[in-house]
Amino acid sequence: YLSGSALGAAAWRCRGPLDAERTHDRLLAALALCCLAGSAALWGATQVHDAAAAAMNATMGAALAGEAALALLAFGPATAVMGALFVHQCTLAHRNRTNFGTALAVNTAGAALAPVVFGTLVVPRLGAKYALLLIVAGYVALASPRAWRNHARSA
Questions:
Q1: Where are the alpha helices (DSSP H) in the chain?
Q2: 8 A C-beta contact, residue 106 and residue 100
Q3: Percentage of residues in the chain with pLDDT exceeding 90?
Q4: In the structure, what pLDDT confidence band is assigned to residue 151 with cuts at 50, 70 and 90?
Q5: Which of 37, 50, 118, 119 is deepest in the core (most CB within 10 A)?
Q6: Whose CA is closest to 123, among 141, 140, 135, 105?
Q7: ∠ CA 148-154-155 to the nearest 5 degrees?
């Protein structure tokens, strides 16, 4: 997770100036798509794990490689986009005269609260599939009013 976020953040720092709101909406859309694709990848988890294990002769290393392959497939793209989104949000916070410590504290509080809320409330009530879809819907819902207006006009 941390490697993916760091790679996404580093890649994001290499881009040029962008329209802040449109960029934020596009990153949220990319994150929603990555989460959806990562969730879909989990449907084939047994096949991916077994293929990785078979390629390494069913050893303990093969089991670990299978788990790593699944994690990379399911979470790699999403964590890279999360890293890019975090850097972009920190940049927006700085433009609005919010210091980095405050932005980091809000991000850390959300990261600490999410597993508790999802692990104890959402997943037991909705199940894993609908909990993951709720995360995707949450990212889509965070899009700016301008994005929603533009989408409504194009529909």
A1: 2-13, 20-43, 45-55, 60-95, 100-117, 123-126, 128-141, 145-154
A2: no
A3: 30
A4: low
A5: 118
A6: 135
A7: 90
pLDDT digits (tens, 9 = 90+) for 86-142: 888 888 888 888 888 998 899 899 989 999 999 999 999 999 889 999 999 999 998
Name the residue among 79, 81, 72 with its Cα closest to residue 12.
Answer: 81
DSSP symbols for 23-63: HHHHHHHHHHHHHHHHHHHHHTHHHHHHHHHHHTTT-HHHH
Q: Which amino acid is at 150?
A: N
Quick one: which of 154, 134, 140, 155 has its CA closest to 25?
140
Q: Is the pTM of this model over 0.85?
A: no
